[in-house]
Predict the 3D structure of the following.
Amino acid sequence: GAGVSQSPRYKVAKRGQDVALRCDPISGHVSLFWYQQALGQGPEFLTYFQNEAQLDKSGLPSDRFFAERPEGSVSTLKIQRTQQEDSAVYLCASSWFLTGGPDTQYFGPGTRLTVL
Amino acid sequence: DAKTTQPTSMDCAEGRAANLPCNHSTISGNEYVYWYRQIHSQGPQYIIHGLKNNETNEMASLIITEDRKSSTLILPHATLRDTAVYYCIVRVSPSNAGNMLTFGGGTRLMVKP
């Protein structure tokens, strides 16, 4: 009965390093979302998967950001050559996508990334 | 998705009802009103949603005006653990794939002893 889990919970990176953030969605959930939350702001959408297909990546801020979900369950958000402006909390959410009905997104605790 | 307007912050006495307003005057007929909250250092948590009828669950009640241009989230007996940022979100559901949530600034609710 576990919820959405994310790892690591905290990550400190030096500017220019690559980082990988992991999301384990609720078992059986079809939809998976990544959001970015800057300090004092609401979360902002980054990208969306339905099973293994990345159907929307319009929120990714640059081509340094890459997300994958190869087997339709676990997802990884990768940030290459990190910059200070990438410092934020990265949230993952999953939902059971129901055609014809409202879906509810369940969020993980987030990964707080600090780029020095 | 329609834009929402919420007060930046509110205070509530512990044990009293907390009434959080939200304006969504441009809401369309097929858009739902969702409420999420985010306790410090946690991910957002779903509270409740509705289309046009009032809704109640174990966490809260949602009152939607008849013209659907505004709504109120009611926490009937606020506790200190209800201190959080509350987000009112309007979205089409279901929509095309990519049912992302568009968060505004939310209301920071402080429950005081």
Chain A touches chain B through 31 residues (CB under 8 Å). The two ends of chain A are 37 Å apart (CA to CA). Chain A is about 0% helix and 45% strand. Residues 16 and 81 of chain A are 4 Å apart (CA to CA).
